[in-house]
Amino acid sequence: MQSEIMFAGFGGQGILLIGKVLAHAAMEEGYEVAWVPSYGPEMRGGTAYCTVVISDRPIGSPIIKNPLHLVAMNGPSLQKFAPTVKKGGIIFINSSLIAFGSNRDDVDELQVPVVDIAKDLGSVKAANIVALSAFVSRSGIVPMETLKTCIKEEFSKKPKLIPLNMAAVAAGEKAARK
Amino acid sequence: MAKVLMKGNEAIGEAAIRAGCLNYFAYPITPQSEVAEYLVRRMPEVGGVFLQGESEVAVGYMIFGAAGAGERVFTTSSSPGISLMSEAISYIAAAQCPAVFVNIMRGGPGLGGILPSQADYLQATKGIGHGDCRLLVMAPASVQEAVEMVMKAFPLAEKYRNPVMILGDGLIGQMMEPVEFPDDLKTEPTNKDAWATNGMDHRKGITRNLVKSLFLDPVQLNDNNLALKAKYDRMRAEEVMSESYHIDCDYQGLIVSYGTMSRVCRTAIDMLAAEGIDVGMVRPQTVFPFPEKAVAEAAMKPSCTHVLSIEMSMGQMIEDVERSVKGRVPVSWYGKCGGDIPTPEEVIDVVKQRIA
Fold it and tell me: Is B267 in contact with A60 (Cβ distance < 8 A)?
């Protein structure tokens, strides 16, 4: 069994980081993982995206044209990548910044206003963790406890940020349940 | 040791330290600058040295200097940077000094692009510098394999007193995968008193050592070339590494592919097998010396009607594949170059057109 998740948005939204945290959590769960960033000649403020491949056997091609799931943090990413998502996958939409849907009826679409939620928690910077938590909660791709452990580890050098990010995890989980 | 999730470039830097190399000289270039970014912080922690040269030309000779003094030393660069180092690499090979060069290939020729490529195959395996010089060249297909190859590269460079190259594509440097640094690959630098210019204080009374690449006497120069040739022949006999995939069946065709491209091919082979089309693969892990025997044997299987060399270049490794197969089975090339890595579906289409 192999899952591929594409995280996409603007540079600066913490896209690469949430991909890395998910890859780390899946590795801790004993899966084979690969994290592949986009490192093309992108413009400042342009799109940033990465793909995480999670598998129960050695990963062949780490280059994925059709991911199983998409986490879209801005409109251009949703427009560009929504048509590439495999049937039956999850399309996560940051509805704080995206006013339209995926236009797909063969996927599980999840809209969460992650920027608004993060603002309420005290910092817009936690929006990426809200999105990651909501996605993981909906997909069940790794246990929430493992995700929390890996987020804590990611922020271990900035322990002041851990309570905010734990609140972001809780809020994301709640939003995905609705 | 538990696995850690690391970017290929960072893992390469850490692997060199674990292999006992405390000297790193480099000049930044995408897509491998993270090696320097990692080591500028990490080298001081272990008492090592990171020095940025003013250019790759300078870096090449900094490597030569440290290697000639008997130190374990390495550098990392990407295609155009390696071209600038090639003069020094030839000198280092001629002077028989051990050193490790990592080339995280980007698209070329010229400045080309910054995305993954395998277009330096011929340069690395046949034309790395002027004169009769060769490198032992290993090509990793995962971050873990990159780590292991870097750790093996230092003792191999010392075994042969010759530069060793790790030939990775941009994706190997940029991708994160779980890695561990095997303790059994840790080695101690060998004693180099017999030839290195490492000072006379600890070996008084012995003739001075001289590290040089200039041999004006034709007999001496020929002798030096014969000594180098003997080493390259020994590499061909002792260091060939390759891995086979899906060859325990009557496959209709054989793919030869290395690095990231071989992983795409592995996925394509699995998808084809699900459709009832069997294709085998030989993945060279050393590209010099090339696994001629493994490729020839796999190609000669009676069921095999075609051999495909699939590369992220315009057909470079195919010259070694053809040389190995010796015209006994048709050989053709497929590839893309510029950063757009062929997908498993594209590989499948090519297999179906030419083989199935």
Answer: yes
